[in-house]
Amino acid sequence: MKKKLNITQLDRRSFLQVTALAGGGVMIGLYAPKALAQGRGGGPAAAPVPSNYITINPNNTFTVVAKNPETGQGIRNALPMIIADELDVDWSQVTVKQADRDAAKYGQQIEGGSTAIPSNYTPMRQIGAAGRALVLAAAADNWSVPVTELTTASGVVRHAASNRTATYGSLAAKAATMQLPANIALKDPKDFKIIGKPLPGVDNLAIVTGKPAFSVDVNPPNMLHAIFEKCPVFGGRVVNANIDEIKKLPGIRHAFIVTPPTPPAAAAGAPPAGGRGGGGPNIPSGVAIVADNWWLAQNARKSLRITWDEGATATQSTAGYTATAKQLKAAADQAPAAAPAAAPAAAPAPGGRGGPQIAAVGNVDAAFTAAGNKVVEQEYYFPLLAHAPLEPQNSTAHYQNGKLEIWSPSQIPNVDPCGAAAGITGADVTMHLVRAGGGFGRRLQSEYDLEVSRIARLVADERTAAGQPSVPVKLLWSREDDMHFDNYRPAAYHYFKGAVDASGKLVAFKDFVGAFPNTGSGTPIPSNEFPRGFVPNFLVTSGNITPFNVPTGALRAPGTNGTTFAMQSIIDELAIAANKDPLQFRLDVLNSPEGPAVGGFSAARAIGVVEKVRQMSNWNTRRASLPRGTGMGVAFQFAHAGYVAYVVEAAVDANKRIKINKAWAAVDIGRQIVNPSMAKNLVEGGFIEGMSHIMHWEITIDKGRVVQNNFTEFQPTRMQQVARNLVEVEFVLSDNNPTGLGEPSLPPAVPAITNAIFHASGVRIRSLPLVHAGYSWAT
Amino acid sequence: MPNYRLTVNGSQRTVDVPADMPLLWVLRDTLNLKGTKFGCGVGACGACTVHINNEARRSCVTQVSGVNQQITTIEGLSADGSHPLQRAWMELDVPQCGYCQAGQLMSAAALLRKTPRPSDADINGAMTGNVCRCGTYLRIREAIHLAANGGRRA
Is A489 exposed, middle or buried (0-12, 13-18, 19+ CB in 10 A)? Predict the structure, then answer.
């Protein structure tokens, strides 16, 4: 059965159009209308320009465009796979081509929030199906047979009754002249040949042979290399610098204090509040050094003498934030609770988990003092974190004759602020999307794009004044720059109080969050965070720790990656207080909703992954027969539209050395896994990232600057800590729309491990990272 | 600036660079061999791993003036991806972002040269200096075993 879909229902804002190519190829595009084309940049919308998702070549090969940037989640595979399947060609016939940034052609081109699959899954199917429909129409016309008698496979149309076949390539020129049918059938998912198959990454050969596949490898002719020295204190400014001495060093071509762009050009795309202040609206104050190669520029930093105005942030420290959090908590205890705000009943968009910061149901205080109730009161803390993608931030730009060409590794590429930084408009910016060596949310904020755009403009101006031709410039941050100038995962202080009654039922839950004002994700606790909606007396409030001038941003599963540690740990504590098995306790709470679902949270899906992971890990019997010093912990989370539950088995020895023996992951991201190979890889990687969060990772602030400098002080998980076959993954295929997986796999990994540590050792982990409590990995 | 004669992937190259310039930047910026990656600059992540006289070395902390043996980079592991490790990496679809993988492959190749059938402990010893921020260690380990086993799944 083919599902009929009216083309006008594609998306009310999009339509398809077909263009013939010289040489017999045909392009099939999804056209974005004016509203979408206007979207980001404002200004007058250009007439819709054909996009170029599919090119049918005369030799029956197919070029399929990957619209989104690739940072390591496999979207460069996934979106073209979806198109190719509906087009009904073989993956081996397909060449993938990366799109440039082009709002008019492609609308949003964002790799973040685990949104690329949910927002593109159906449109990509429709594009592929439309391509197939055109080829079918051409064949039907050629052979004078009804379309319904035709079938396709591997890029060939077949008319069984007359035993005729024709390749798509041979039909391409004709197809370009055909009218797109009003109704286009999408495949029945059981007929998928590419979607759902574990297909290796399209860039794998380039990666394993060392081809220049990454942003840092971009190398246009005559390129110079830049560093950008910024004030180590956030918001500090250059007073003066020994620029003339720097210019005399070997290989140094340019050195200057970076000045702001001429107003009013700089406006759009401002970095987050609490940013770095400095030389322009969007660009921090600092000194650029531009040299023949990067090391010469980097080495010249040793000779750089800058007088900084460090500004007000120089008085801030992590110790001060902690003290402020305690004061906020004490004040909150004295103040009457503010009026409660209702949580949204509808599901937020994937990734959007904002909502009121205050939630109040029932009367928690009465429950805490009621006879027979057992009360648990504990404090939790998790620190600021850097993203530390392995490829340090970098970008390459060429300013020439009023135009800017930029090669960006951004997860959310945007021409307008780059144009503003270069003193031009976004319309004069050409942006190429280049593979990035890891994102994790770091490249959702693209200061390096703005910085290189500004530096490239200033280099061009200097060269023009000296009668020299303009050249491209690559800005590359050192690892220390990357660690010192991140947009950090916000820390938080949680002050919990909960109660269970004599039967072990969770009857009260209270949390005060000492949070940071610019959390990147908008709220310290998602409005639909479990156990909200499952407790008769519930109160969540928060207070902002100010002043706080450290930039923050989205790290993989923003809003939940730290929160899950705190929430799924205190739930574990309440389970112990209730004398219940911690996995069964979670199910019991999930099975006792207090009213309708909150914010799209589905108890059934959460129960589904918890039950699945119980079965996978053989929880009931295995946990009862573990050797001394070994324990099993469980945690689950609803993050970015996906549901993930982990069980972890870990051993803790007398010297606090931890060995993770096994992790089981049950994952529900809907009815269809587009590429199971990458999906499994992302879950394994999410768990392994969680190990980094637990043991070593933290960013601390002293005198307004980041203390940690490099991986030596920000140790990631390493091979020896990852036992063979450590992570076992199973997907629960619930009947829900497919969603993304970059994010959901991380958050519950952390408390599943710390809950296992508790079961193994009796020690409850309430503060991260563990290295401060004397723990290390067993080797 | 002095001249240095290097043997890179079997070719003689002469470079005119400062004595203390790290080999990494000579490879990347002077010789335009972009496969070797910059990750930390202090020998803490392994992204810059190359072979010097068949031993895995961190090129970001190796000054060019001290290198007078054969250098092999990821571009020299094989011209076409046919090295058993490269084939295993592709068969098991190891990469996520892929940025660390050149360094991982070079460390693994040095391991297999000395220890053709490595144990898990051997792999831990040889590979722990190589960070994979995406966390592909499980597949890296399996790919090393696969290559060591002649491409046959154990």
Answer: buried
For residue A719, list chain B residues with Cβ-Cβ distance below 8 A: 123-124, 127-128, 130, 137, 140-141
The CATH number of A3-199 is 3.30.365.10
Q: Give ipTM to 2 decimals.
A: 0.98
**Equal CATH topology for A222-312+389-484 and A322-346+356-384+488-777:** yes
- B95, B97, B142 member nearest A71 (Cβ): B97
SS3 of chain A: helix, strand, coil, percent, to 5: 30, 25, 45
> Does the beta-carbon distance from A711 to B42 stay under 8 Å?
yes
The hierarchical CATH code for the domain A222-312+389-484 is: 3.30.365.10
- Chain A contact set for B22 (CB, 8 A): 295
- A334/A317 Cα distance (integer angstroms): 26
B2 touches chain A (CB under 8 A): no
Domain A322-346+356-384+488-777 has CATH 3.40.630.10: no
Distance from C-alpha of B90 to C-alpha of B92, rounded to nearest angstrom: 5
Inter-chain residue contact A722 with B136, CB threshold 8 Å: no
pLDDT along chain A (779 residues), means of 10: 35 52 61 35 31 82 91 92 96 95 84 81 90 93 97 98 96 85 89 97 97 98 98 95 98 94 50 36 87 98 98 96 95 71 50 56 93 97 97 98 97 92 95 96 93 98 97 98 96 96 97 77 72 92 90 90 96 98 98 85 96 98 97 95 96 98 98 96 98 98 98 98 97 93 94 98 98 95
Q: Does B44 touch chain A (CB under 8 A)?
A: yes
Residue of A nearest to B42 (CA): A710
Question: What CATH fold (topology level) applies to the domain B84-148?
Answer: DNA polymerase; domain 1 (1.10.150)
Architecture of domain B3-76: Roll (3.10)
Residues forming a β-bridge with A379: A495
Q: Cβ–Cβ of B93/A678 closer than 8 Å?
A: yes
Burial class of residue B151 in the structure, from the number of CB atoms within 10 Å of its CB (0-12 exposed, 13-18 middle, 19+ buried) = exposed
Contact at CB, B98 and A201, closer than 8 angstroms: yes
**Which among B25, B79, B127 is the nearest to A294, CB-wise?**
B25
d(CA B94, CA B138): 9
Q: What residue ranges do the domains of chain B occupy?
A: 3-76, 84-148
Task: For B84, name the nearest residue in chain A, comparing CA atoms only.
Answer: A208
Residue with tokens 């723990």: A775
